[in-house]
Amino acid sequence: GESVGLHLPTLSVQEGDNSIINCAYSNSASDYFIWYKQESGKGPQFIIDIRSNMDKRQGQRVTVLLNKTVKHLSLQIAATQPGDSAVYFCAETGGNTGKLIFGQGTTLQVKP
Amino acid sequence: ETGVTQSPTHLIKTRGQQVTLRCSSQSGHNTVSWYQQALGQGPQFIFQYYREEENGRGNFPPRFSGLQFPNYSSELNVNALELDDSALYLCASSPTLWANYGYTFGSGTRLTVV
Predict the structure, then answer these.
(1) Residue A109 CA to chain centroid, in angstroms?
(2) B100·A93 Cβ contact <8 A
(3) Is A24 left (phi over 0), alpha (psi -120 to 50) or beta?
């Protein structure tokens, strides 16, 4: 069935280093992708999104890359800070539906 | 502008009981979607409400039901609770039917079934 998966359950990085979190999606019809950050006890918080007509989008310290050929999505966080420690989810949707399909999540741990 | 608010924040119920969770949508949003997030998993879509009508449903049994009110707030009802219903229940509101614009999540209700 449809699924969005993440390659690594936990990523540990040193403060100040760059982080890369990966995601593989399976639905070729998906045309909109979102990265969410979820801190303990909170709901998912929007980080950055990208539509299928783009392959790269940059925000403040974050970049999302989309490779539709291999159905791969990545989130790059520059100069990772302790406040970036959280679980990161990729999500996809398509065909103007109201449903988001989430991956399993990657826990980012930032070491001081 | 207020965000999405959910109540209660935590709840403990006994297997077989019924529960009602509540969600107030963000100002200007007319669509509410509900998700179930089991521990260590990504959120799973339960259903969506638009203008008081169910508009799409995930792979959840009929004992999961909902309502949306004229002010766009919403309720999630779960009957005959099972242990596996223990999860974080998330509500998201959006200004349109579609998930590709303005989707905002609340902090969730943590339901524990014992």
Answers:
(1) 15
(2) yes
(3) beta
Q: How many angstroms separate the CA atoms of A16 and B97, rounded?
A: 40
Which backbone phi and psi does B82 adopt, to 5 degrees? -115, 160
Tens digits of per-residue pLDDT, B31-76? 999 999 999 899 999 999 999 999 999 999 999 999 999 999 999 9
What confidence tens digit (pLDDT) does each residue in A51-97 have? 999 999 999 999 999 999 999 999 999 999 999 999 999 999 986 67
A104 with B41: Cβ contact below 8 A: yes
Query: Which amino acid is it at B96?
Result: T
A44/B contact by beta carbon, under 8 A: yes
Residue B70 touches chain A, beta carbons under 8 Å: no
A23 touches chain B (CB under 8 A): no
On whether any CB of chain B is under 8 Å from the CB of A18, the answer is no
Distance CA B94, CA B87 (A): 23
* Residues B9 and B2: beta-carbon distance below 8 Å: no
| Residue A78, pLDDT score | 98
Read off the pLDDT of residues A7-21 as tens digits, 9 standing for 90 and up.
558 999 999 999 999
Q: Which helix (H) or strand (E) holds B110?
A: strand B109-113
Cβ A99–B99 below 8 Å, yes or no?
yes
Asked if residue B112 lies in contact with residue B19, where contact means CB atoms within 8 angstroms, the answer is no
Nearest CA in chain B to A45: B105
